[in-house]
Amino acid sequence: MSSLRPLPDTEGKATFAVSAAVLDVLGLAPEQAAHLDLGDVFRLIREEGA
Asked: Given this model, what pLDDT does residue 35 score?
């Protein structure tokens, strides 16, 4: 049985994933989304009315 380990450089941080469909709705490239935190994503979703 293997244990779950955090992704590199994410120790002590909450991580999340955004689907390609959400990125399309928000008009973001994956590279742009990589620099956002979850609060930014929620704000953009609210602004876009998605």
From this structure: 80
In angstroms, the CA 39 to CA 18 distance is: 12
Half-sphere exposure of 22 (CA within 13 A, CB side): 15
Q: What is the 3-state secondary structure (H, E, C) of the chain?
A: CCCCCCCCCCCCCCCCCCCHHHHHHHCCCHHHHCCCCHHHHHHHHHHHCC
- Residue where the block lists tokens 């689907």: 19
pTM > 0.90: yes or no? no
Name the CA radius of gyration of the chain, rounded: 13
